[in-house]
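Suppose you are handed only two things: the residues of a chain and a line of SMILES describing zinc ion. What would the bound structure be? This form records exactly that question and the answer produced for it, so the two can be stored side by side and reused later without any lookup.

QUESTION INPUTS
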Amino acid sequence: MSISRRSFIASAAALPLAANSPALKIVVAGGHPGDPECGCGGTIARYADLGHEVVLLYLNRGEGFCGGASLDRCGAIRTAEAQTACRSLKARAVFAGQYDGRAVVDTPHYESFARLLTGENPAVVFTQWPIDRHRDHRAISMLTLDAWWKAGRRFALYYYEVAEDTTMFSPTEYVDISTVEARRHAACYAHASQEPGKWYPKQVEIARRRGAEGGFTQAEAFLRHPESKRAVLP
Ligand SMILES: [Zn+2]
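ANSWER OUTPUT
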């Protein structure tokens, strides 16, 4: 990386989050149990360690797939996995009540999702990238964006990436996750029904590549909505 690129990143970086800054509410929205943990697990752990409150807001309970178990058990199995992942990140799970693979984006769902999200009164919201491969990721991205505009852009809005699903993502802000990588690993492996051994190594590859871009061993990288205020990143 050239020096000019490094100094560009340094100047573009958000204000560092001091350990004594007031507690913030952070919401990380994801299509499925596992998406927030996969894309932002290290950042979530760092926020929580600084005393901030983090909510993982899942669009559904992963009813569509849970390995070898029968489909009617998937919602319960994956809810339990999400709760375990949240415990390891010191976060709280919230479910938006949609069904895995059948995301609905219409007026009543825009309204109910906006009530749920703004009801948390977040300072910062992370959501999925609007041209991810999975429909549920695109759905939560639209629902979050709409709620943000409806709320007068009063919270900061950032996008995150996940292995295999995110396309054409050019992040601008980097969070060093080198010291908390084990926590992210634990949160992702809590989703045992999703066979994390198959996809977690790809997420590590991404974190190493983002680390190289941002000047860290491993990093998670984000794109701020151009009309969003700057967040205080950990
Ligand atoms: Zn997903």
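WHAT STANDS OUT: Residues 172 and 223 are 5 Å apart (CA to CA). The two ends are 23 Å apart (CA to CA).
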